[in-house]
Amino acid sequence: MSETNTTRPVQFNSAKMSYEEFRELLIADYKLAVQSRFVSLLGRKEVLTGKAKFGIFGDGKELAQIALAKVFKPGDWRSGYYRDQTLAFALNISTVYHFFSQLYANPTIEADTSSAGRQMVAHFAMPLVDEEGEWIDQTQQYNTVSDISTTGGQMARILGLGLASKLYKDNPNLSHKKKFSKDGEEVVFCTIGNAATSEGVFWETVNAAGVKQIPVVISIWDDGYGISVPNEVQTTKGDISSVLRGFQRDEAGAGYEIFRVKGWDYAGLCEVYEKAAEFARTQHQPCIVHVTDITQPQGHSTSGSHERYKDQDRLNWETEFDCNQRMRDWLLESGLASDEELKEIESEMKDFVRQEQKRAWSDYRKTLQVDLDEGIALLEKLNHHAVELPLKTLLSLSDLSLKEVYVNIRRVIRDLRGIELEGKAELLAWYQEKQKVNHSRFNDKLFTDTKYSPLKVEKIDAAIDDNSPIVDGREVLNACFRANFERDARLIAFGEDVGKIGDVNQGFAGLQDEFGAQRIFDTGIRESAIIGKGLGLAIRGFRPIAEIQYLDYLIYAMPVLSDDLASLSYRTKGRQRAPLIVRTRGHRLEGIWHSGSPMSVLLGGLRGMHICVPRNMTQAAGMYNTLLNADEPALVVECLNGYRLKEKMPHNVGEFTVPIGKAELLREGSDITVVSYGSTLRIVQEAALELEKLGISIEIVDAQCLSPFDQDHLCKASLEKTNRLLIVDEDFPGGASSYILHEILEVQGGYYLLDSQPRTLTAKAHRPPYGSDGDYFTKPAVDDVVEATYKIMTDSRPNEYPPLFS
């Protein structure tokens, strides 16, 4: 481990740079450090005066980030966190104006270029796709994946970001690489706070990056605390680089090159980052830079004061070893600048920051003022006493917000219900139009919604006839994957046991031998890392299929899935995307830990991903074909008990598509509509035969996709015929079945078609015990479906269908 602890004279090659050029470089760096510090100081004041909701800043980390920026090249990647404002300023990923616009939550992408007001301050992003959904040339810009607040959440995706460079380097003939790589020379720069190294995702990622030898430089900003909790409580030995020594590369094998440097040591920082970046870039091996002795002059955030948990000695030390102050002292002591010159710089930067803050605040106010002025003008045209108080309120607003504008407008609309009044129609029309504007400001782009949306992929029927061979379902999947891998060199698949044995259910059997271990490969047991790898690869132009072995294990990857992947389009207002397909299997396997049906967890946590629940492997193959021709992330849950069931092999197994968000009518009936999906659907189909013996005809609808659900309103059309509804699934009570009920009754308007109470049939509230008997008594069985259906008929026609149990 390389350790750099003290400031030493900076050596420079006079043949490359004159003394004056060198001095100007140092002055420019100091100017940037001062600018960033004033941003932090003023930003905190703006929050404490009530002009912004919350602030979190990068003060104390300025020099380390300036040194890092020096080795950051176009095409490189940043995966960082909310302390990186100096780095963002240095690379022009953000500006002072954009920073304050984000602090105020300006809902325009022109002002807050990172998130259009959707993320709190210091969460940076660069556009990766244009408005048409086309990839921007990543080799020509400084790239950063949109930040997330999740502690340590920025770690997992570096695996895919860095692996992409290795793949581009090893496969120079990849036809799609032009916009994504310069011969694999890109380095990923990841930043993380010292306390966040206690998170499991940190260790998963560090281990996986070491195994794959990812070209990444991980910077650990160590200010000694995690909010109020000191390192001694966070980390063994109180020192993360000491703990990481076992990862140091040596004669025993490949690993990390680990550096340690103090955050106030400008020369040492520059030297370390030059070495680390060169090592990662040329040798494609990972590095860790532990930056110690960093201060945090204003504490963790605007939520509190660090004086509450730091004693006076620590506070005195932080004043003495403040990186900006140490650089200032060094410039003076070395004769590189005069005190007068530095004071002039400080005054200039303070004025500049204040000017940009005022400009950001003014533009934010102007954005809101438009709605306020228009609303006031419309209310002034209304001659009614109900308008007086809301109008006075809007005219006297001091703390302007869109919320206050629309609270008062909507109050007027309510109070004028049923009243004919001149100007009212104009107000209502304006309000309806503003609903669209505010949807764009605050609610759009949960999905990318480009021409590449999976909802727009052309439907191609499966070519199945009497000559179609009858095979195991797994063989249909295998043939589908083979056809797609032959057609598209961007495809990559990985996960536990996916490579050598072709996954535990043989979907990829033999494909590693055909397409190589770079395209289809095994991973360790680390679900967060698997999803992060897929996310990063997808952002960099590949089409990854990341496998999580069983549906229950998705829980271990939920922070990456939910906080990062699912929210990526929304939090960047559609300017970043990661078309990752997550493949897993579940349903009907016995046992508490393999029951495989936590659909409500996924529906709640994965808004921003399509959730596909095919009933068999042919349907699954069609969904994969659709998703691989689209640009949005999705989860496909295959039926665990369906791999050896017999299906006909489509002649166009790699081309046919199953529409996303479309339900399918499987059986016509007249008495009750039964909606289900996945493995439970086969239970319903068996029950239909028993119900026929009882004189009950059920219509069966396969949901096929839960998000989005039944966009053609097939369920409503079925209810128009049957007027009765039963939803069957094996999620917990009140889970996915309740979601489906909401979609049919409320969204589709099915409530008005009902002649009897709708019902849901689900698994029990507990997880299933092990064994077939446990499955029978826990999850819906044929008998349960028969009896639940019969009960609906009993309630509506008791004379014809007398109660079973009385």
From TrEMBL:
Database matches in PANTHER family: PYRUVATE DEHYDROGENASE E1 COMPONENT BETA SUBUNIT, PYRUVATE DEHYDROGENASE E1 COMPONENT SUBUNIT BETA
Function per UniProt: E1 component of the 2-oxoglutarate dehydrogenase (OGDH) complex which catalyzes the decarboxylation of 2-oxoglutarate, the first step in the conversion of 2-oxoglutarate to succinyl-CoA and CO(2).
Name of the protein described by the UniProt record: Transketolase
Stored SMART domains: Transket_pyr (SM00861)
Record's keyword terms, sorted: Oxidoreductase, Thiamine pyrophosphate
Segment forming the signal sequence: none
Pfam family, one: Transketolase_C
All residue ranges annotated as the Transketolase-like pyrimidine-binding domain in the record: 471-645
SUPFAM superfamilies: Thiamin diphosphate-binding fold (THDP-binding) (SSF52518), TK C-terminal domain-like (SSF52922)
Cross-referenced InterPro entries: DH_E1, THDP-binding, Transketo_C/PFOR_II, Transketolase-like_Pyr-bd, Transketolase_C
Cofactors required: thiamine diphosphate
